[in-house]
Structure formats: structure tokens, C-alpha cells
Amino acid sequence: MTLPPTDPMLLPSIRDGYRLLRQGHYQQAGRLAERLVATNNQNPHVLAFAAEACMACGDVRKSLRLIDQAAATTADKPFLLLKKARLLALDHQRQAFIDQLDHVLEHAQDNPILLWQSASLCHNNQLHQRAIALFEQASRLMDPPPGLLYELAMARHFRGDAPGAEQALECLLQATPHAGPALYLRSTLKRQSRQDNHIRDLEQRLATLPAASTDRPGILYALAKELEDCGDHTRSFAALTLATREKRASYTYDIRSETAALAEIAEAYTQEQCGNGTGHTDTGPIFIVGMPRSGTTLCERLLCGTGQAVAAGELHIFGNELTRHTIAAASHTSQPNNASASLHIDFRALGQRYVHAARQIANGSKYFIDKLPGNFMFCGMIARALPQARIIHVTRDPLDNCYAIHKTQFFDGCGYACDLTELGDYFIAYRRLMDHWQNLMPGKILEVSYEDLVRDPRDQSRRMYAWCGLDWNDKALLPPPPSATFSTASAAQVREPIHQRSLAISRNHLQQLSGLEARLAAAGIHRHCQSHRPLQPGQATADMESRTKPSPGATA
Length: 556
Description:
Strand content: under 5%
Mean pLDDT: 89
Low-confidence stretches: 531-556
Structural class: mainly alpha
Radius of gyration: 24 Å
Number of strands: 5
Strand order of the largest sheet: 2-3-1-4-5
Largest sheet: 5 strands, parallel
Number of helices: 28
Helix content: 55-70%
């Protein structure tokens, strides 16, 4: 569903405005929106863009007023009604978002495109079961395009319906047989075996791939994954090398700016800054942080296994709200960088805003788990905004962790994943920042080793429960129920019984990873997964007691 065509003279300016928003230049986009609205206040395209710009700048009331004004200027309203639902979701008005979505769907029963867009919005806002129903309804009203089938497959995958996801992917592949993302997702739905795999199929698709196809990296990632599952590690890494090289050539990424930003955070946040406990004193938030593929999803599964804490998913709320508050602060004070500007925000308001938003997604649960790994960079800000929040940092053998990242096809973020040198530099910067947080806030962050967790899940889980102030129950160790949703690359693995299969996974490629290992070692980061003998019960906890005793007030 789209709006009627607008004045061709306005289109370049509107496109420039959306580009500014995508690049994070919110204040510039806001100024452009003001100029456009001043001379075109009856144009729905201008008003819709201005609404987006105002929301990005934190002016919620004006944003919603503008989108209502846009809807009043055209008879073709459903698209704008849906945009208002998205703006309400961005402002964390969850019930208003759901009510607005219901209003949209009154216009959508026979409109497959609007149903599809509504399903995508549900999927992106943790309403997975409703998203699946809408995707399926849309697909019954038209010959479903590949994009719809892919989103349906992903939603079913997150809900644990691997057969349903594969069925959607097979329909997709009949129409677009070389669709790289679909072939990669198909390979990740389960662990492949020598008797049941798609290796020959993937090789044939590669052989018939059109020249210069952008699908080639996805097919190679899929091939590398299936070859590894079947134990052919040499061919697997060869396919992975081609996949990562070609994907890295397809996008622009500056590792120096990424690592510099992490260093700026460490420089700005001193012990005095992190120790300022003037934030919101809610005791319910539990943050699980670390690098991707470090075991954060397993920790989440174990912590929500007894039902006392609700898994809210990988929430971007804290980072987004921090950014919004920082932009406002930067407009009133001159600072060298965003990290320094963030010191001047109202951390109590940030904490209140975060808890209000996250708890809606967690259905009002007192305890809720935010498992966004990248929140590691905000540990000091979390401590100021939410001094009673629990933070769990999941660590993993550095080379294993880096290899697990390198072999995963990420579609959003993790630009460092494809190049081993960039990956090493980012990992070093991450470890330095986490060491900084631990030194500044001793006893505030619980470190949990993935290796210890899979070798001794009972003791390590009890340790996490005690840290979070939760009552231990052996139910935590059971596999998750079929209805559980995991919106993560680990959605298939986390449903399996706890296993040690992923320990020391990099040992099959030590020669190919030797440069990365040397880079990490030069920075003082060494492998700690040298021995593969199972731990005795209780052994895993002993070496961490001194670093993880909670400070006063840190546990309930």
C-alpha cells in the first residue's frame, strides 16, 4: 500500500530526508522537515516524512499530530494508519500500537500487501504468533512473493516450527532457486547429517548461479555450515572463506570508527560517573551481554526456565533511548563526542523510560531479561540509569567465539564479522571495554563462562539465579516449551538439550585462524579452552568467586 504520487519537485528533498534519518542525522532531518512543512502542509508525503523526523528527534506529540494530519489529507489512508502504528511502537506505546494495528486491519482483510506490511510490523515488535497468522492470511490472497515467504519462514523458525519454516522456504525456492538468504536459513533450521543434507543441492545451485549474482555469499555460507555439520572441515572453511570475502566486498565498514567509539566510552565513563546511583531503582531488569555467539541465548533460556523471569528478547530499547537522550543533551552542550555528551543526560528518566517500555513487551513481569549482546558497551550507563539492574556477561573461548561469529551470516550489524583482522580488532576493543567496566564496578557484573555453563549447567544456573534474586528450581534445566520464541541466530540450537558439541570448535581450523589467534594473543587475550575434559560438579564456580561476589544491594 502506497500513497498517491506526489509532486516530482518534492521527491528529491523527501528522499534526502529519509537518507538523513537512516544515517542518524536526526537534527538535520528535523530542520529539513520544518522547511518542507512550512510550504507544503497539505502534502501527505511531506507530513509523513516530518512525522518520522519528529519521532527521531524525540518530539512524540508533534510526530503523531503530523501523521494524523497526513491521514486527513488523503482518502488513501491505510498506509498512513500503519505508519502511525509503527510510530507508536517506536515510542513504546504498546497498547496504543496494538489498538492502532487493529484499526489498520479493519482496512486490510482483502488487501494482501497491507496484511503483509502489518505482519512485518508485528514480527519486528515481538508479536510473532500474530505475525505468522497475518503472513499466512496475506499468502492466501495472492501468489506470495519471495519476500513474504522468507519473513514467514523466519517467523516460524523463531517460534520453533522448523517444518513450517522449511515448507515456506521450499515454496520460495521454486520461484527463486538461487535465493541466498533462503538457502542459508534452510541450512540453519537443523543440524545436518551425512544421511540428510543439502550439500549436493547447494553445489548444483552454485554451478547454475547467474553471473554477478548477489546471492552467491548466502549459498556459500549455507554450504560451509552443512559441510561443517557433516565433518568436512577443510571444504567447509574453504567455502566460508569465499563467502566472507565476497560479502565483505559488498558493503562499506570502518572498523576504526567502531573501536574508537568503544574507547571513547571507556574514556568518558570514570569510576565517579559509574558510581553515581541517582537512577531508577527498579529491581526487575536483567541484562545478558557479551559478543554474539558467546552463549547469551543459552543463559536466557536457563534464566526464564522457571517462569519467574520473562524473556523479552534482544531489545534495542536501551541503546535507542540513550541515543535519543544524548542527541537532546548534545544540542545544549558542546562535547567532543557522543560518549561525553551522554554524561549530561537525565539517567533516572532514561531508566524509567526503559523499564516502562521493556516491561510492556514482558507482559508486565517483575523480572524480565534483555538479551541484546551489544548492550555490553552500555554497562556503565545501565549502572547509572538502573543501579539495581542485574548484568550478566557471558564469555567464551576467544578463538571459538570469533570463529562462531565469522561463520554466521549476519544481515544487520556485525560489519566486523567477515574479515578476520577486523574481527580481531573488534574483539580486542570489546574485551578492553568489559575489563574497564569490571575494574570500575567490581561486584556489579556477573561473569559466566560458556564452557563452564555447558559442562556444569546446574551449578552455573544456580549461580545465575542467586545473582538475580530468583528462586532455584530444577525446571530451569528442561528444554524450552514448543511455544517459546527465540529471535536469534541460535533459535534452532537453543531448543536442543544442553550439549558440549560446540566446545573448542575452532580447533579444526587452527592453521587458518593462526593470524587471528596471534592478534588476540598480542593484545593479551589467550585461549582458555585448552582442555576438553568435563568439569566435576562445582569445579566451574571456584575460579570466579572473587570477581562475582555481589556488592551490597546487587541482589534481592
